[in-house]
Amino acid sequence: MITVRFEQAGDAPGIRETNALAFGGPFEARLVDALRGTPDSLSLVAAVDDRVIGHILFTPVTIEPPAARRIAGLGPMAVRPEHQRSGIGSRLIREGLDACRRHGYSAVVVLGHPEYYPRFGFLPAHTFNLTCEFPAPPEAFMAIELEPDAMGGVRGVVHYLPPFAEVS
């Protein structure tokens, strides 16, 4: 039985390993470690018998010029290779978006696969007049409103927390 829950003490090694295995290297694992404990971040795991098999992280982002909205950035999201394509990633995203709503976020952005995230309601961010601080194809930078018209009147460049640019 798979449970999705917030990260708990003792989950860090399993999260680190899950990210390294899913992405085939240490970058995302180091990024998650650098972001752990960031105020207003939401870190959820998918677990079987307390063994982490999936992880998703949401951290606050800012918009320049400033916008009076709480917006989260999704990423990274990882599922161990032997559990991929079994619905765990979808469940992490759905439950993560629900958690973001409950924690007062009005929208979420993601830099990810343009074939994957639209099934959850993500649209190209440029339709909300948003661009990403990092070079990315326009179709890969997406956003979702968690409340009606959350992005109305908002426009600008989305900035992620410094570790996204610093960790290598």
Structure, explained:
Strands 1, 2, 3, 4, 5, 6, 7, 8 and 9 form a nine-stranded mixed beta sheet that branches. The protein is 24% helix and 32% strand. Helix 1 (12-23) runs antiparallel to helix 2. With 168 residues, the protein is of the alpha+beta class. Strand 2 (42-48) and strand 3 form a beta hairpin. The chain has a single domain, classed as 3-Layer(aba) Sandwich (Aminopeptidase).
In short:
With 168 residues, the protein is of the alpha+beta class. The protein contains four helices and nine strands; from the N terminus they run βααβββαβββββα. It has a single domain, classed as Aminopeptidase (3-Layer(aba) Sandwich).
Query: What is the level-2 CATH architecture name?
Result: 3-Layer(aba) Sandwich
Helix content: 10-25%
CATH superfamily: Gcn5-related N-acetyltransferase (GNAT)
- Alpha carbon gyration radius: 15 Å
